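Predict the 3D structure for this chain.
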Amino acid sequence: MEDLISYIATGTVSLIVGALLIYLQPKSKIFYWTPHSFLFDVKEQNIMLHTDSLTIQNLGRKTASNIEVIFDTKPDFYQLQPAVIHDGVEMENGNFAVKLKELGPKEFYTFQVLSYSKLPKLLNVRSDSGKASYMPFQLQRLYPRWFNLLILLFFSIGGATSFYWLTKVTYGLYQCLQNVQP
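Done. Predicted structure below.
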């Protein structure tokens, strides 16, 4: 009977570990955001210029492949930073797709778009691993390193003090419960 229980336990642990390995394996996670957009009204030339920016980043631990950035129409001008080999493809339905071969972990590309005739609308960003997620974006002030270290020190002191008092109170309650006799 003990052999049967050990076989069942071994099988169960193996299944759980296998499921965890599948769940925890590296994945690619593509995110995108639009840091800026601006409309220039050049009245002397009777032209409306629209600039737009789109940043795509892989925040996962695995390389993302076959990334597509799909616009409703082809932008008048666009460029990628950093420069990378890409394909601009006109699709059958009139949409325009910029195809990138791959995007490594923690890498990012920024699209700079300039339009004057028709404003292109971003429709989709996707890769082989699925649809990219939109990330809300906001500029944030960067503090000096000494300030960040000081805040870290304050948090550490507060955490250590809280842990100390929590341990002391728990030990005191334990002592009180040990002395109580029914």
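The CA atoms of residues 64 and 148 lie 33 Å apart.
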